[in-house]
Amino acid sequence: MRPVWEEPPSVAGQVAKGSVLTAVVLVVLVPLWVALVTSVSSRETINASGGLVVVPRGIDLSAYRIIFSGGQISQALWISVLVTVCGTAVSLLVTVPAAYGLSRPGSVGHRGLLFFFLLTFLVHPGLVPSYLVVTGVGLKDTLWALILPSALNVFNFVVVRAFFQNLPGELLDSARVDGAGELRILWRIVLPLSKAVVAVVGLFYAVGYWNIWFTALLYIDDNEKFPIQRVLQTFILAGQTPQTSGTAVGTALPPTLAIKMAVVVVTVAPIAAVYPFVQRHFTRGVILGAVKG
Question: pLDDT digit string (tens) for 49-64?
Answer without folding.
Answer: 888 888 888 888 888 8
